Amino acid sequence: MQDEATVSATDIARLAGVGRAAVSNWRRRHPDFPQPVGGTPISPVFALPEVETWLRDQGKLRELPVEEWAWQQLRAEAGDDLQLGGVLAGAGDALVREHAGETPPSPSTVTTARSGAAEALADLAAEWGGSPAFEFLLGRYWEAQGRRASATPPEVAAVMAALAGDAETVLDPACGTGELLTAAVEHGSARRLLGQDADAETAALATVRLALRRDDADIKTGDSLRSDAFPAVRADAVLCDPPFHVRTWGHEQLTADPRWEYGLPPRLEPELAWVQHALAHVAPGGRAVVLMPAVAAGRRSGRRIRTQLLRSGALRAVIALSAVQHVWVLQRPEGRTPTTLLMIDDADRETIVSTWEAYRNDPDHDKPGVSRAVPIIDLLDEDVDLTPAPHLSVTGSERTAERFLETHERLTALLERLGGLLPAVRPSADREESPSVLIAELARIGHLTIHQAPSRRDSEESGVDGRPLLTVEDVIEGRPASARMTPSDGRWIATRAGDVVIAATAHRFAARVVEADGALLGPQLSLLRVDPERLDPYFLAGVLGSSANARTSTVQTTGTTGRVDIRRARTPRLPIEEQRRYGIAFRRMAEFESALRATVSLGEEMARLLADGTADGTLVPAPGEVPAAWPVI
């Protein structure tokens, strides 16, 4: 391992609070910019001390946040990205032992003991808490791995955990770094967590991740198909996102394995081996939820096993999350054999979970275009294709023409309104940049207060009886609260009109002004409650949405979601009257964005209704609809 910390161009951009392109410009324009000390010509790395000195001399160095310091220490100790996992696991292990009151292991063990990385992680944990600190560094680790590794996206993990329901014992036989087991903890009442992964380093990361949340996790290393670490376990829920890309899964050695009660998995379809492995570990009344490649629903080689899963009643639902990913919900057959299979296509989490719950009490469920309880007898044809879309009912045609005209009128009115919503702004004659101030400083002097939603959704979600809950997606899309929940304690913050709510994902950042009181602030959201005599909320929300603030205040924690450290954002220091002038422009722009989204939605609806009306004969082109210059077909 190298002694001196190194940084990439992306890291330098974070240190200076600029974009990646700015660092490239500095390298071209400044001959004294530090020379690379390693990496590749495309992705060079630089010595951190040299970079810090140069940035400081140029007046470009910000105070290094504790999380960035921890990340740089971790990278310095690892030496290269291939060693990051082991160093992070060691630092995390030292943190877990310290929290448990144990003496950290000696440096001769595989852990880093009280190394620089462990010290830096401990410092970050002192500010953020152990689990959030480790989650941050784990997110950076996944980011550094790029295409070399992958993790179950958090939104997919949340859907799978919700489908599994409440469970005392949860098993993940291909647990990776623990995404599904973590989701099971956040979703419900899991009391015992069991996991196994073939990669020792990944299993070590999962061990630390779960140990910082719970003390009941048991993570083993090994290949679950060839060397099952929990052969006698019958879990209430099995969650699994298996490594389907591994084709040497043991087909020849496991030909006579008793787990294959639905048929010997084809050599090139390891997913059907994992499905049966999951079913073998489900207790009576329990549930297995397995993430599947979409092609597994229709491959001819797997037809016999799909047939047996349907006939036995083991397969209960197939849910298309996208064109490439499905979720299969399975139960060990007992009692009366079901006669239908639930199929869902391209729905959001709330719809998927509520539809699954409704289906259990309504075997004739049918929501055209979205979900349907398909008779199993209809699926047992030559192909046994379980792709949901072809099996869904189409929307009834009796009102297609009427709905088309209604949508046409709404869209026409909205298009007429759009132009009038654009704010009246012009280029500034004086291009001098206004002095700015950190949000942290505004909080210190009492111009606003900063609030953060609880990091874990450990309260029970509920349906119509719960309180409205604002989600990250609601803020990004500029829509009202779409979720509901019943808070279990007083940590949940009720939003007020005039509050500024901030959300981030790996690709988008948004700040919105709350228009009405009452909704709860959801997980991964930040809230600024301003003094309206000193800060205009619409002005503040507008400038927080700038590209610079999106870069400096969003910290990516997983592949798709981000944590907002809004204290690091800046806003121009302007008199309140001038803020309000800008606030009007930002408010009109927000209304324009909302109307534009509605326009796109109505346009898509019109296109679908036109296709439906043409297909069922309820719509015909108006006379003169085809211009004379167009060829008539």
Automatic annotation (TrEMBL):
Keywords of this entry: DNA-binding, Endonuclease, Hydrolase, Nuclease, Restriction system
Pfam families: N6_Mtase
Gene Ontology MF annotations: DNA binding; endonuclease activity; N-methyltransferase activity
Residue ranges of domain DNA methylase adenine-specific in the record: 133-323
InterPro entries per record: DNA_methylase_A-5 (IPR003356), DNA_methylase_N6_adenine_CS (IPR002052), Restrct_endonuc_typeI_TRD_sf (IPR044946), SAM-dependent_MTases_sf (IPR029063), Type-I_RE_MTase_Subunit (IPR052916)
Name assigned to this protein: Type II restriction endonuclease subunit M
Record organism: Planotetraspora phitsanulokensis
CDD domains listed in its UniProt record: AdoMet_MTases (cd02440)
GO biological process: DNA restriction-modification system; methylation
